[in-house]
Amino acid sequence: MAKSDGTATTPTSPEGEAAPRRRTKAPETRAGALMDAAERLFIEKGIATTSIDEIAAGAQVAKGTFYLYFPSKEALLGALQQRFVDSFCARLQEAMDRHRPDNYHARLKAWVETGLETYLDNVALHDVVFHEYRPEDRRMRNDNAVITQLVTLLKQGDGAGFWDVEDPTLTAVILFNALHGVADDSVAMGQTGAAERKRRARALTKFLGQALHPAEDDSAD
After folding, report:
1. Of residues 218, 175, 65, 217, the one with CA closest to residue 52
2. In this structure, are residues 33 and 79 in contact, taking their beta carbons and an 8 Å threshold?
3. What is the C-alpha separation between 87 and 129, in angstroms, rounded?
């Protein structure tokens, strides 16, 4: 609204009080709200049956706002996948960093326990955002940030002589899939309680420790 002299005025309510200004969400807040809404709807309804209109409504933004951040629903799904991986890696790193850099056994144990915990706490989200397997997913050696993170730990332990790792990347792929398999079996068997998680983490940590332990003198064979 403007005065007769062209200057702006502050809108008022019927009672004559100044009306509150509508607050505009920051861009990163709007993008996060869209992703949060999509997560809820994808888990509740599935990806195929969730519309962009519903996602925008769930985030309390206009439909046009959606396209300012994501060109398509598929692009939004890709962003959700990246956010899941980034969060997963951050939790793993935080858990490992609670132990001394040279305490490789404790850091590997933390990786296992936190990996299982995080996966099982977020299995519904994991299953929905990674719902579709594609052949290019086989490039996990290069693209999987969790594996890359584990490769670093394996190289450090190998360099210190704590364990013997001939091929850190291949070994990380094996360990990652072992963790994934144990977690999937836990869900399939309906054994996801605290005690069962601890039991599985102990078993997996023991197995991985034995697999990585420096080999005895092979010349005896």
Report:
1. 65
2. no
3. 14
Q: Which residue has the tokens 């998680």?
A: 197
pTM, 2 dp: 0.79
Is there a contact between 39 and 13 (Cβ–Cβ < 8 Å)? Answer: no
SS (H, E, C) the chain: CECCCCCECCCECCCCCECCCCCCCCHHHHHHHHHHHHHHHHHHHCCCCCCHHHHHHHHCCCHHHHHHHCCCHHHHHHHHHHHHHHHHHHHHHHHHCCCCCCCHHHHHHHHHHHHHHHHHHCHHHHHHHCCCCCHHHHHHHHHCHHHHHHHHHHHHHHHCCCCCCCCHHHHHHHHHHHHHHHHHHHHHCCCCCHHHHHHHHHHHHHHHHHHHCCCCCHHHC
Residue 201 to residue 41: CA distance in whole angstroms: 32
pLDDT digits 0-9 by tens, 57-96: 999 999 999 999 999 999 999 999 999 999 999 999 999 9
Whole-angstrom Cα distance, residue 112 to residue 132? 25
